[in-house]
Amino acid sequence: MGNVIRPHDIPFVVGARYRVRRDFEAMRDRFKAGEELVYQDCALSIYHGCKGYFFRDEAGAIRSWDLYDGEDSHALWPDVFDLVSPSPASKR
Fold this sequence. Notes:
The protein is mostly beta strands. It is built from one helix and seven strands. It has one domain (7-84): SH3 type barrels (Roll). The strands form two sheets. A five-stranded antiparallel sheet has the order 6-5-4-1-7. It has a two-stranded antiparallel sheet with strand order 2-3. A hairpin with a 4-residue loop joins β4 (36-45) and β5 (50-56).
């Protein structure tokens, strides 16, 4: 089902820091190797048939990595992101 986001569909942890592994272009954004981003949220666009994963960069700007329905975020994210540090809440 592409029109629902379930927690197990989201490969990222809110507040965790991720590093971009390689330069790549997403639907609405460009990412550069070495950038560090903090994961914020996920949203669904039924109209566009995609999910957006939203991060904040070091300047505080929102960045988005969008995947079309049918693309497996769990399989794809390790190719472009590394987990740098877990969410501060998970360290407690």
